[in-house]
Amino acid sequence: MEQPIIQLKNVSKQFGSKTVLAGADLTVEKGKTTVIIGKSGAGKSVLLKCIAGLMEADSGEILFGGVDIHQLSRRERDAKKRKLSYMFQNNALFDSLTAFDNVALPLRENTKLSAREIAQKVEAILKKIDLVDIGDKYPSELSGGMQKRVALARALVMEPDIVLFDEPTAGLDPIRKNTVFALIEHSQKVFSFSAVVVTHELPDALYVADQVAVLDDKRIAFQGTPLEFEQCGGELAKTFLESDEALKNMMLGLKSKSELREQFNRLQAKCAGWLMVSLSSHATIVERMGKIAVQAIMLAMVEVIGEAPSFRGEGFLMNSHTVMIALETGDLDDEAWRQTIATALHRSKYFQAATYREHFVDITILYATLPKDAAQDVDGLQAHLENNLSMAYELKRSESKEAV
Amino acid sequence: MIFGVSALLGALYTDRSLRKVIQYLYEIGVKCTPVVCLVGWFTGMVLGLQGYHTLSKFSSEGLLGSAVALSLIRELGPVLTAIMVVGQAGSAMGAEIGVQRNSEQIDALNTMHINPLTFLIGPRLIAAICSFPILTAFFDLIGIWGAYVTGVLMLGVDSGIFISGIENSVGWEDVSSGITKSLVFGFLTTLICCYQGYQTHIKSTAPGARGVSQSATRAVVYSCVIILLFDYMITSFLL
Question: Which residues contact B6 (CB under 8 A, 6 or more apart)?
């Protein structure tokens, strides 16, 4: 197994009498994105600052590539830290420097590159993250999202091996939040760095995470893949996931996946079959229109399905873009479903909103039906339905324009 | 003191400091020139007026030139120049660095492997050490001119006596004592102002904007006290 790029062993940090970290262990794998989640004030930023060297841990080891940073000479330590970059929660851009100068600063101070070479490098990175013609603007003249991108460009311009993101979406609206997460994911793929993201934005952060670490009670209480996190069923995961689920369920009038687990046997005995509707292009919609758009589409579909007289059933939200319905009727005619879903989409207020016309993306809604007794449990049922997606309804750009 | 010396040495050994030094020479030197000249002018005029009326009681009006020049060059020039520069540029330095500390810009420098002392403090110290003697010289010259206007042009002291009095009484040791004081004041006041801003998060009892305002206030008050304290110490050492 490859050596973790960063490893924290038994790290503790205290401020006066207040203990913030007590024996925290964390592993960050090379080329992966590790998301650290935790409640506000749990010590996430302190943990990140200990990794960055902005704060000294009181005890414990911080290993970079398997080597304890404290056992290195100052020169070696500096060399290790040069491979690390940090994106601050409030961007920490120099307000007296232009966007270009902010990005160029680490190059000017740390390299012997000529002014022309620096300019080329800065312009290239600004172009890569879709920031053109803003080089001569000061941070105060840029929007919050643009400032984030300038901060990201500054963090990436030295081509670091590790980038630490401290609450990169704090204070942003939902659409910008999604844009920033998409930006992190995109940059991680383009620049191949290892990322550590501190956030409390769930479940959005799970989309970009290869690993999830939960900071609770002064230590890392869980570390694993997002799937393991969702499935671990622990109290902690429930607390984090259900807080978001509860809001979504409240908006959509649906029950949660955990409620489906609890009621599965009762439903299996009584229902005529199962229907799953999933928004296949949700990632694109999130990226281009925001999470709210996905929610609006789901809401429209749930409303129409709920109103259809021949398709009564109990609905459960499996994740942000998938609804499972325990049907009360045995009528599983595909054509009827196609009509129902088409009506739902065209009724959605989202597609009528002129603001989103230019951002409109082709949408494919996948749906599948299965008879009762097709599976023994919820996960098996979901797997069956996903494997048997029988029909797809595609809403293409041209069609959407007509609908609008 | 370690803070100041390491910042100064760091900046001196960094070839990229020149641009920043020029920028701060403009901030401290050029921008403070009008206020220093204005205060120097009125100080000289007041000295000329008061000196004339005091000396005329002893029929010694001819000593006005030397009395004014020595007062300005030895004491008032370096002290008042330093206080004026602290009021204009020092408080701004404290506040600016304090804001940079609060908005994590200084932490950002650390994460970019840029030494904040070398980057932020060192060039300011160099610029202050260069600017203070020049500003003091301006203050002295304009002050003497102000005293000439009141003493010679308004109150009728003989111009030749006024100027020859200055020539005969002011020696190199007077000028060097003034330059020494201005160098020491430049280094110490800039150090205090930068240090107060740099330690905003530790030194201030209030967070955020109030912390920055506290830093700026402390920067000015401590600097003024230090100026007067060191003025006495240097004078007693040089006399």
Answer: B117
pLDDT given at position B5:
72
Q: Angle, nearest 10°, between helix axes B122-148 and B17-24?
A: 30
The amino acid that residue A17 corresponds to is S
Average pLDDT over residues B46-64: 89
Q: Tell me the pLDDT tens digit for each residue of A217-232.
A: 888 888 888 777 777 7
Q: Is the pTM of this model over 0.90?
A: no
Helices B122-148 and B172-198 cross at an angle (nearest 10°) of 140
Structure tokens belonging to residue A123: 């312009």
Per domain, the residue ranges of chain B are 2-238
Put simply, the answer to whether A81 touches B113 (Cβ < 8 Å) is yes
What does pLDDT average to over chain B? 89
Distances (CA, A) of A373 to A270, A368, B61: 10, 15, 118
Q: What is residue B192's predicted lDDT score, i.e. its pLDDT?
A: 93
* CB atoms A109 and B104 under 8 Å: no
User: To the nearest whole angstrom, how far is the Cα of B202 from the nearest Cα of chain A?
Assistant: 13
Q: How far is A31 from chain B (nearest CA, A)?
A: 20
How far apart (Å, rounded) are the C-alpha atoms in residues B100 and B94?
10
Whether A158 sits inside 8 A of B112 (CB atoms) is yes
What is the Cα–Cα distance from A362 to A351, expressed in whole angstroms?
12
